[in-house]
Here is the input.
Amino acid sequence: MNKKILFIFLVLLILPLSSAAHYITGFVENAKDGTSADGHSIILWNPIIGIQENISDIIGPLGNSGTNNKYTIDCELLPSGCNVTNTLSLKVINNGDNYVSQEKNVSVSVLGYDVVENITLNSPPNTTLIYPTDFEKIPYSEVMFNCSIEDLDNNAKEISLYGNWTGAWELNETQEISSGDKFKTFIKSIADGFYKYACKVTDSLLISSFSLQNNSFVIDTNIPLIQSISSNVSSLCGKTNTIQINCTAYDETSGIDKVIIQSISPQNEINNYSANKIYDNVYSYEILLDKIGTWNFNCIANDSAGNYNNLFLNDINVYSELPQISVNSNSINLSKANPIETEEIQISAFVENKGCSNAENVVVVFFNGDPEISGEKIGESVINISENDGLVSSISWSTKIGLNNIFVIGDYYNSFDEEDETDNKANNTFSINSWQEIYGNTQVDKVIGGDQVEIKKWFNESYLEGSIFVADSESDINWLSLKPIGRKKDGQKSSEDFLEIDEILGMTFFEDSVSNVFSENQEPKETRDMIIYQKEIKNVPIINSTENSDFITGLLWDSSDDSYNGEFDSEDKEDIVFVTPIIKNSPGKYGIYDYEIRIPSKLREYNKLNIEEVYLYYELN
Here is the structure.
């Protein structure tokens, strides 16, 4: 115990003998890119006096500390010395490798030494050139330069674009960098020519780095000129012939680098051929046409700057030596644009013979629906078609409502041995209007007296009000129980009512189904409140009866037919009623009258006992 007391006593005696020095010491962390802090210089100065009066140390084993990443500086060695409460500044200075640090401050204490907060060696920022790449050929004048930003210390401040397109190598633009920026772009409009560019990034410590290289690029906005593309023939018979395609092309700036003659077969198979220059600006290639049909050709000229131009030569036809029957969907037409149900019209189709021989007694058959999937035969015709010619074939047809997919098959019985029979069959779809428009006038005489003598009219007909109703002939309507389609008995919304009506009427896949006409995603497109039998019915879904907005058609259901769930459904199949208000002497699509209502033609089939009739009812107020 006495030895320990003596040791402490000796220390206390010795310490005052070295009090003339005051050491500032600290730790410098390596740069985030892995560069060691050792060997770099750190300086100390009094900011009140100025940085010009400073002392330094070398960080690490070569310095005063003799320890990795540490430094020790005696502030008393400053020309002005240091005193207690002085605030001193320190930082790592640039030894030529662009590694520095931010400043740190320390207050001189009475202890004889002070430890500075850790300093981190700052990594220099870096930038790389993203676009244009080196030797990039750019066929437009507005260039978006793109330079990346890499800064491990996240203190990059600005980035600058340098280039020589103004006539000398100089700074063109500088942009500030926000935290998190990974790249910056500069948009410049530059004339045609060959140029170089680079980027420089600077951090908040004013340490800058240029990109490792300057990228070269060329601006060439001129495309080669192709004067013509031609062939030595316009059509051929048979699959063993060659055709010579000639292309005339030149480039005023950098010259033609290569010319490609491209063939596109009737099956859209593409082949590229390097054309041969046969004389000034004319390039040529001979190509075997080994497939029946229409061939197309494309001349593609490339200049040395990377620009290209092309010119097409279309419709070189190779015909079969045999008859070749063809039908196109676009040639299938109806003789009337908007026929109605059961109307007698003509269906026609243009049938071609793309062969080099006449085709006689060609049987053309028309179907409603695909004959391979139980399509219904409509009729057939027989025509004679000369080589490389075509004729219109037509038949009579009694239209059917809804979608009708009309198929036409040429050479139905395969009487001809054809090279290609895939184009003998074609189809086109026609929608026959599924709705009927009913209009008319109302006239009512009410009299007091006997059958033989009219004594007095009950009211003035010009003010007649009421509604016209249409329902299937088998429907037994309870007029006091009508509800709007799309609503339950309690007035709440009901989903898919329109869809269920379509299912009952067989109109689900019609373009003009009840759903499509009245609703959008099963929500009524428009609703209106209506007075029916002295009772207001709210939210009745409506449509315009025709183009005239004065006449409307609404849709109701008979809730007295409901058995259990309080809403319209296909299981209960409650009666539906179409309704329109009477508007005396109003203009409509067909003239001046009192009502106009639109109903689906298949309403007559709502109940299957009688599929021929619907009944009209009226209510007069």
